[in-house]
Every structure is written in C-alpha cells, then in structure tokens.
C-alpha cells in the first residue's frame, strides 16, 4: 500500500474562501447600522411604490381610464411627489438641526453640545494632526468648506428634493385637474405659488421639527441604556450628554 500524500498547507489552515467571508463579516459589523437603516429605507420605499401604484390605478379606473403598469407608475408625478415631499422635509430638518446645534444648547439634553458653563479648555478641533482628513491638513478655503460640509450637503439635498417635489407635484396636480374637471395645466412656477404645494410641504415640515424637538426634550429625563443618543443612565438630568 502506497503512502498517502498530505495536502500542502499549514496545520489548521482555513479554507481559501474563508478570508473573504471574514472580511465581509467584519465590514458588516462595522457598517451594520447604516446597512440596516438603508435596507429599511429601500423596503419601505418599495412598499410605498406598490401601495401608491394600487391607489393610483383605483383612481384611474374610477375615472374610466385604463390601469397603469408598475414601471410606468414610477415615472409619474404621483410617485415623485409622494417621495420627494418627504425627503425635502427630512433634509430640511437635519440640516437645520445640525446648523442650530452649533449656536444653541438645551441644558441637560443628550442631543445638545455641552452647556457653555460646563465647557473645559481643550485642543483646537480644527488643528491638523498627522491622521487628520486631508482638508484639515490643506487649510484655507478647503478647510473652511470642510468645516461646514455636513450642513452644506444636507441643505443641497433639501434643495434638490424641494425642486423634485415641485416638479412631481405639478405633474400630479395637473393630472388630477384634468381627470376631475378638464382644467388647463399650470406651470411649476404657478404651482409653487399655490396653497396646495405649501400645504403638502408644511404638513411634513411641522412633523419633522416636532419629532426632533420631542427627542431633544425627552433625552433630558429619559434614558436608553447603550445608545449614543442617550446620556448614561446614572447621569443627572441637568447635565448635558456627550
């Protein structure tokens, strides 16, 4: 009987495919919160489109028109208006919140920066270090933009969502007017000046600021153990969270 030849490799070596799996698991662990949030976003966006498609087709059938295909629905003002009027309010809320927390505080809230009376001297947060992002090391105008890049990006997204909401809302409004009374279409500029457009915007804007304001105040008194959005459980109410 011949001697068996052992497969090359170190004792206990992992299979060749194990390394990519480990890297993926590590990436998933390091990005789990973003993956979960964007996964939920995509799920609810798809569900919104499906229910919106059914609702629109019900309206078309009642008006004596043929139902529309799903892919066709995704290009309609009905879908665009419903999506972007909500995105618009979200980006406005977050942009305003990020900017206002630069100047304003809420004593005792985990959502606020420390009370100025509790500030302690520390390092200059804009001073470059060896491992600082390159805009910090570059300085000048690049640093000035980078220092405000979060609020700039959020307000740009708000602006883009506002325009897309306006365009989608105009298309949807014109279609409804045609189905209901055969009225002449309006331009985006005319729809911008209508109460309908601002009613859609305000009903979302007010709810977004209510949600953030509620979180700011509740985080003074209430806790969620383990969450970075909460102060430590044993922290006094009057101390601002970090």
Characteristic terms for this protein:
9 helices, mainly alpha, extended
Describe this protein's structure:
It is a single chain. The protein has helices at residues 18-30, 32-62, 70-73, 77-103, 134-138, 140-147, 149-180, 188-192, 195-221. With 242 residues, it is an all-alpha fold. α4 (77-103) runs antiparallel to α7 (149-180) and α4 crosses α9.
Main sheet, how many strands, which sense, barrel? Answer: none
Which residues form runs of ≥5 with pLDDT under 50? none
Tally of helical runs: 9
Helical residue percent?
55-70%
Count of extended strands: 0
Oligomer kind: single chain
* Class computed from helices, strands and strand pairing: mainly alpha
Note the beta-strand portion: under 5%
Q: End-to-end span in angstroms?
A: 72 Å
String of helices and strands: HHHHHHHHH
Residue-averaged pLDDT, rounded?
86
Shape: extended
Please give the radius of gyration in angstroms. 26 Å
């Amino acid at each position: 009987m011949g001697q068996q030849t052992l497969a090359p490799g170190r004792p206990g070596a992992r299979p060749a495919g194990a390394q990519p799996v480990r890297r993926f698991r590590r990436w998933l662990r390091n990005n789990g919160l973003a993956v979960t949030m964007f996964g939920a976003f995509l799920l609810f966006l798809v569900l919104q489109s499906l229910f919106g498609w059914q609702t629109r087709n019900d309206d078309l059938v009642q008006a004596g028109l043929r139902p529309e295909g799903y892919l066709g629905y995704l290009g309609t003002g009905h879908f665009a208006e419903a999506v972007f009027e909500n995105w618009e309010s979200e980006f406005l809320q977050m942009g305003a919140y990020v900017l206002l927390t630069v100047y304003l505080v809420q004593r005792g809230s985990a959502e606020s920066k420390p009370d100025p009376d509790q500030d302690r001297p520390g390092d200059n947060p804009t001073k470059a270090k060896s491992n600082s992002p390159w805009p910090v090391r570059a300085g000048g105008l690049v640093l000035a933009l980078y220092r405000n890049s979060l609020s700039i990006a959020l307000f740009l997204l708000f602006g883009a969502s506002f325009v897309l909401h306006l365009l989608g809302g105009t298309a949807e409004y014109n279609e409804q007017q045609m189905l209901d009374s055969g009225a002449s279409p309006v331009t985006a500029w005319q729809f911008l000046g209508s109460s309908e457009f601002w009613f859609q915007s305000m009903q979302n804007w007010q709810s977004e600021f209510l949600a953030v304001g509620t979180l700011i105040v509740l985080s003074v008194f209430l806790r969620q153990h383990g969450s970075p959005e909460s102060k430590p459980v044993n922290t006094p109410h009057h101390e601002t969270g970090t």
